[in-house]
Design goal:
globular, 6-stranded parallel β-sheet, 8 helices, 226 residues
């Protein structure tokens, strides 16, 4: 059995901070701790081969400048921890538009990708400065430049997206909202969707186990009659 691709929309950091009387930056710091917990859970459960995290969307640039600066700084610190990824045997890739990103962050992202490219246990796909519609447009332009757009089928299209990864089997969104918010739009046609009222920093291993168990009981017929 192929391992799963589990994607996460990490919503609720700001609300968590407000609820606890902290500045929004504190919520994002706690959110990084949850990222570490989720990555370790997926590594240890033995059933997940790819984890995709919606870190920063193309729409997030409209947030207050101080918050954006803080998010960029946190991202650079996280992707600079190459030693940790190597120890865990995690290959890091980025589904990202590099437009607008600071030079130092782009350098750290590319170094992280290069140094972890031979890791085998799991792929961590960080969707940073990401938008599903923009990715589709990007892929169409790439295929057009190759002269392959006219005859491209879904398989060819997928292989030319930011990363050649399997489509997500399940997406979990925390924070109580029930929408994809421009996340993996092309890839999620038959993805199983789960929505949780839990704010991202409060996500627990028990809830992750519950989602994984619920996924196993979903009937996935991909439009066919079973």
């Amino acid at each position: 059995m192929n391992k799963l691709h589990w994607a996460f929309i990490m919503d609720g950091n700001g609300r968590w901070a407000k609820l606890h009387g902290f500045p929004r930056k504190s919520g994002h710091v706690e959110g990084v701790k949850t990222v570490e917990k989720v990555v370790d859970f997926c590594l240890n459960c033995g059933e997940v081969g790819v984890v995709s995290l919606y870190v920063f969307s193309t729409e997030n640039w409209d947030r207050p400048a101080a918050e954006v600066k803080g998010l960029l700084s946190l991202a650079e610190k996280y992707v600079s921890r190459v030693k940790t990824f190597l120890e865990k045997d995690v290959r890091v890739v980025f589904s990202s538009s590099y437009d607008k990103l600071p030079v130092n962050l782009v350098k750290s992202m590319r170094e992280c990708e290069e140094k972890t490219k031979n890791c085998k246990k799991m792929v961590l796909n960080l969707c940073f400065n990401y938008g599903g519609r923009e990715e589709i447009l990007h892929t169409a332009k790439v295929l057009a430049e190759k002269g392959e757009l006219k005859d491209a089928d879904e398989e060819v299209f997928l292989k030319n997206m930011y990363n050649d990864l399997p489509c997500p089997d399940l997406i979990l969104r925390t924070g109580g909202q029930m929408r994809l918010s421009n996340f993996l739009l092309f890839q999620s046609a038959y993805t199983e969707l789960f929505f949780s009222d839990t704010l991202w920093p409060d996500l627990t291993e028990d809830e992750l186990n519950g989602v994984l168990d619920a996924f196993k009981h979903r009937v996935r017929n991909f439009g066919k009659i079973i």
